[in-house]
């Protein structure tokens, strides 16, 4: 209720200005002052916003001097979820012949926002397109069109609008453009059109040469085509471009190295870990060490990792290895299993991914954040570093 009262204050102010302006005009003798404005304020103070809105609507007869009041009321209705009332107000404004070109354009934009809120995307698209053609509120109209096309998954139109926005605002949209190309590439792959997919991926990497998603898709295409050597090189490139995404390609990475006859997987993972000691790389390296050097070496590596990072995933992996090594040794083994159950429960409550822009938490990777709609902002959650004063002495691995 309090928030609604604050939203109504601009409407009250506009209506007050209107009343004051009209009271300053010459009046016939005996004309009294219109008490409606003060009655509306009383409704606000008595926390009766619906009655206050009705009063201000009656005060705000549409003329060039009251457009701002109507726009404020329409915006208020939309925020309250009363989209039908907002649409009626803005439609009434747009139909008025006595508005300036700028005032009508503003009303058209607000009506487009109403239609978007109501899910009437075709009507909103038409109004935003009109504003773009007239070069009025062009940037906001293009943003509105991009939102519509993203919801409709019309990636080619998204691409066109993003390029227009980039030219109009001089702000880089390379991330968005690259992601739209990747969406088109995935659609082409589903349709079995490999050449169209390759063309889209070239567009993605032209827009953003460090686009990890494009590199991943290229690697998948090379593997599907039987070129394991090229795929291994591309997967290695993913580790260099975005090691935080290694968790998404680990099985493919191992398979590509195996089929290509490469024996440097462990060395590459160690290098990735030294440069980016994050959770996905830690997991991959622990598995590779266990496979090539044995459980004892993997335990030593995880112990060193946990000496520097408060990482539940690493602790879970360490306890799994220790339980396996101490199988049958009671009661130590039972204690380890109990601790492992607790760690698994705590770890299961943690999100695997989080949006760097809005903080949205997810269990799976989304290239576009479902909450704030930013592209490429969702990343795997990283382990918290332990302050040096609290770090334990690392375990030295034997050669």
Task: Break the fold down into its secondary structure elements and pairings.
Elements: H1 2-23, H2 36-45, H3 49-59, H4 67-80, H5 83-95, H6 101-118, H7 121-134, H8 138-152, H9 155-169, H10 174-190, H11 194-207, H12 212-224, H13 228-241, H14 250-260, H15 265-275, H16 279-293, H17 295-308, E1 309-310, H18 312-325, H19 332-349, E2 353-355, E3 361-362, E4 378-380, E5 384-385
Antiparallel strand pairs: 1-5, 2-3, 2-4
Helix pairs in contact: 1-2, 1-3, 1-4, 2-3, 4-5, 4-6, 5-6, 6-7, 6-8, 7-8, 8-9, 9-10, 10-11, 11-12, 12-13, 13-14, 15-16, 16-17, 17-18, 18-19
Q: How would you characterize this protein structure?
A:
- The strands form two sheets. The chain has a three-stranded antiparallel β-sheet with strand order 3-2-4, with no helix packed on it.
- Helix 17 (295-308) packs antiparallel against helix 18.
- The protein contains 19 helices and five strands.
- The protein is mainly alpha-helical and 399 residues long.
- It starts with a helix and ends in a 14-residue tail after the last strand.
- It has helices at residues 2-23, 36-45, 49-59, 67-80, 83-95, 101-118, 121-134, 138-152, 155-169, 174-190, 194-207, 212-224, 228-241, 250-260, 265-275, 279-293, 295-308, 312-325, 332-349; strands at residues 309-310, 353-355, 361-362, 378-380, 384-385.
- The longest helix is centred in the N-terminal third of the chain and has 22 residues, at 2-23.
- The model is unreliable at 4-9 and 11-33 (pLDDT under 50).
């Amino acid at each position: 209720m309090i928030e609604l009262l604050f939203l109504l204050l601009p409407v009250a102010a506009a209506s007050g200005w209107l009343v004051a302006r009209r009271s300053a005009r010459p009046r016939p003798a005996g004309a009294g002052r219109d008490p409606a404005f003060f009655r509306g304020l009383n409704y606000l103070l008595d926390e009766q916003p619906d009655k206050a809105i009705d009063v201000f609507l009656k005060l705000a007869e549409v003329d060039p001097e009251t457009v701002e009041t109507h726009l404020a009321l329409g915006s208020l209705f939309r925020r309250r979820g009363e989209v039908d009332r907002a649409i009626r107000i803005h439609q009434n404004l747009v139909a008025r012949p006595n508005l300036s070109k700028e005032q009508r354009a503003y009303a058209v934009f607000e009506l487009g926002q109403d239609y978007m809120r109501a899910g009437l995307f075709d009507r909103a698209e038409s109004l935003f397109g009109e504003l773009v053609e007239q070069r009025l509120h062009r940037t906001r109209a293009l943003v509105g069109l991009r939102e519509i096309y993203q919801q409709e998954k019309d990636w080619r139109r998204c691409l066109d609008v993003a390029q227009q926005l980039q030219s109009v605002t001089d702000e880089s949209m390379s991330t968005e453009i690259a992601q739209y190309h990747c969406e088109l590439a995935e659609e082409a792959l589903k349709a079995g059109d490999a050449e169209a997919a390759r063309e889209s991926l070239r567009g993605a990497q032209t827009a953003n040469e460090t686009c990890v998603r494009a590199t991943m898709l290229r690697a998948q295409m090379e593997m599907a085509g039987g070129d394991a050597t090229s795929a291994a090189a591309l997967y290695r490139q993913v580790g260099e471009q975005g090691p935080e995404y290694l968790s998404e390609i680990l099985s493919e990475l191992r398979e590509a190295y195996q089929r290509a006859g490469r024996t440097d997987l462990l060395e590459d993972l160690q290098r990735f870990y030294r440069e980016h000691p994050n959770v996905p790389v830690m997991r991959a390296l622990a598995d590779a060490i266990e496979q090539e050097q044995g459980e004892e070496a993997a335990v030593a590596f995880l112990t060193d990792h946990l000496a520097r990072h408060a990482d539940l995933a690493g602790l879970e992996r360490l306890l799994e290895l220790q339980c396996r090594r101490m199988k049958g040794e009671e009661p130590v083994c039972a204690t380890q299993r109990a601790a492992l159950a607790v760690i698994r429960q705590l770890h299961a409550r943690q999100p695997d991914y989080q949006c760097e822009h809005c903080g949205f938490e997810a269990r799976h990777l989304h290239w576009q954040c479902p909450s704030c709609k930013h592209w490429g902002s969702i990343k795997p959650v990283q382990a918290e570093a332990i302050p040096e004063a609290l770090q334990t002495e690392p375990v030295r691995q034997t050669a």
